[in-house]
């Protein structure tokens, strides 16, 4: 299978030059558009990798399903769903698209910025530092990587330039979705997005979702099977921003992208896949990463449809 992965990276490498590295967060603008890596972890325990799979990058929006999992583990499905809905917005991930309080539960989902900021308030902890620490610990556990940590430079860069997210957070505050200090909530969110991972980490996290809440090898259960169903369903409809429909048709598996260039893909009962390529398409998804997943899905019949 490694030969297949190497071939797919070679075939899709030209797309790395067609995407654009994110620049609205200054530290992300330093990314190398030539980077391209993939890691696949299968249910039989075998793993395969190619390209720049060891290279670290910030998780960005791929943290959102982990935020959702922790909120579910802390509060249960009924309460979480009463606070943040599950419907796709059909809007860009950072859109300010809700101006009526009665629409919040229907027009937020955990995979867009506004919904994810609200998720931070649902995590339990005596303060937001403890909440972030619990999120970081869960990320390490799911990935099987204790070296995962905060990228301080990206965090500070996000904090300095995150005015759009501040606007989203103050809108949430206006409508009573946030009761705590907005800057404390945002600090947790900026740190969450600035966790440093690699393709292997994303593949392991995706595998736990594919394995319905159980870690690879040990089969230790981290969260209930129902939560895997809940998260995977939202990833399928909302995980690739307003490109989720095309992705469902062309790849056909639950997945989450981030503007750092990462994609975590979940092939239920079969495998987790992590991809990294920082050149983005117009919707904020890794362009070469999507092309690799499209070809891999065709070759291995990965689509759930």
Give structural notes.
Belongs to the glutaminase family. It comes from Flintibacter hominis. InterPro entries: Beta-lactam/transpept-like, Glutaminase. Homotetramer. The chain starts with a helix and ends in a 5-residue tail after the last helix. Helices cover 46% and strands 12% of the residues. α2 crosses α3, α5 (113-120) crosses α8 and α7 (152-161) packs across α9. The protein has 305 residues and is an alpha+beta fold. It is globular, with a radius of gyration of 18 Å. The longest helix is centred in the middle third of the chain and has 16 residues, at 128-143. It has a 5-stranded antiparallel sheet with strand order 3-2-9-8-7. A 3-stranded antiparallel sheet has the order 4-6-5. It folds into 2 domains: 2-56 and 198-215 and 226-300, DD-peptidase/beta-lactamase superfamily (Beta-lactamase, 3-Layer(aba) Sandwich); 61-195, Beta-lactamase (3-Layer(aba) Sandwich). It has helices at 2-12, 64-75, 77-83, 104-107, 113-120, 128-143, 152-161, 163-174, 182-193, 199-210, 225-238, 244-250, 287-300, and strands at 20-21, 37-42, 47-51, 57-58, 149-150, 195-197, 255-257, 262-267, 271-276, 279-280. 52% of the residues are buried.
